[in-house]
Amino acid sequence: xxxxxxxxxxxxxxxxxxxxxxxxxxxxxxxxxxxxxxxxxxxxxxxxxxxxxxxxxxxxxxxxxxxxxxxxxxxxxxxxxxxx
Length: 84
Fold this sequence. Notes:
This protein is α+β, with helices and mostly antiparallel strands. It has helices spanning 46-65, 72-82; strands at residues 18-27, 30-39.
């Protein structure tokens, strides 16, 4: 396994900040990755809510394309169209 980046975060989160977790794992040559972000106080401000909704909508659009015979390139192209 290769570590691509290492970030040392020494600041304390403050009200209104967003936290981002980027996690990955490998097992028997299968790799997986997940990223999640959320407001540290549990409440989105308007810009944060707009971005979160945009990402969720793009996610839902890509998920709706998944079916047998659709490969990851097709899903990536769908995301490129949605994100444009």
